[in-house]
Design a protein that fits this description.
The structure is a homodimer of 174-residue chains. Chain A has helices at residues 17-20, 41-50, 66-77, 98-103, 138-142, 154-170, and strands at 4-9, 55-60, 81-86, 107-110, 120-124, 128-132, 146-151. With 174 residues, the first copy, chain A, is an alpha/beta fold. The N and C termini of chain A lie far apart (42 Å). The complex binds zinc ion (ZN) (2 copies).
């Protein structure tokens, strides 16, 4: 059947370095002190994001996780079309990764109308929805009780792709 | 097929008084100034909650909406078993409905371990999942960009029912 997966946080801590290695045949042992070889909620989230081949549409209130930023930058470097919609207030906070993304050439738009753009969802290649309570922050990932739901069920994905496009179009600064 | 529905907020404003009327044959015209007869994201959310016949398991970070509180109290009055898990810090904030729920005899537990209990989900009758970015506050409902996903897909519902039971058991104050 269609992909349906639920991830809960806080995640177990484990090294995710191997997920960023472009060539899986390279197996230099990682010297970091974290456990290795564990699949965790966070490694699952990274895998879903890094599965993008054509596009990543990201709509997230708070984005300060350096590891998630690294994943988005890697996708951009691979030629994946990345679009980001975020909150106008949170993007200015210390530790926000939004400036880093913009400096790398990623198109970021911020909500200009609503009080807060409080979504936390991503759509990978127009067909895989990642959504839930989890902001893209270290506290959310490592400390909070949070959920993420991942699905390719079209009845659930399509409303989010439409919502993203509407937010994208209505917050065009031009 | 199984229920799958996505709701986006902010909601259009409309009267929801009729949803609280126990007897739908009673049709006293409502004198309030809001539009009547509109189906909105918020009226859909209320309908899903008020469909509970046996149980409502609610796990929500912030709960200050009086209308959602009214819905939960109505379910309790109808004999529905209501259990609430919430955040230890937010529950103390002015406007929180948690005290009102407790005064009505509803069992409320607060997360004692994690930094924040940031979930925003409900499970109706053990089979209908309501989850997303939306906290149960007036700002979230009326002002923010938010989403709620409603589904009866067992692969998605069951992980949340297990998560709820685990939070319930692990935060037993006894
Ligand atoms: Zn390592
Ligand atoms: Zn009315």
């Amino acid at each position: 059947g269609l992909l349906k997966e639920v991830l809960f946080f806080p995640t177990a801590l484990a090294c995710v370095e191997h997920l960023f290695t472009p060539d899986p045949r390279i197996t230099i042992p990682c010297p970091c002190p974290l456990p290795h070889g564990l699949e965790t909620s966070f490694s699952r989230l990274l895998r879903h994001l890094l599965s993008a081949r054509a596009s990543l549409d990201l709509c997230v209130f708070a984005f300060s996780s350096q590891e998630l930023s690294r994943a988005v930058l890697l996708l951009q470097a691979r030629g994946v079309t990345v679009r980001v919609v975020t909150d106008k207030d949170y993007m200015l906070i210390t530790g926000s990764q939004i400036g880093t993304l913009r400096n790398a050439g990623i198109c970021v738009r911020h909500e200009m109308g609503a009080v807060h753009m409080h979504h936390k969802f991503a759509v990978v290649d127009g067909r895989r929805l990642i959504t839930g309570s989890l902001n893209w922050t270290v506290t959310a990932i490592q400390s909070n009780k949070e959920n993420i739901l991942v699905t390719e069920e079209p009845d659930l994905v399509l409303p989010f792709t439409k919502e993203f496009q509407q937010l994208w179009d209505s917050n065009d600064p031009a």
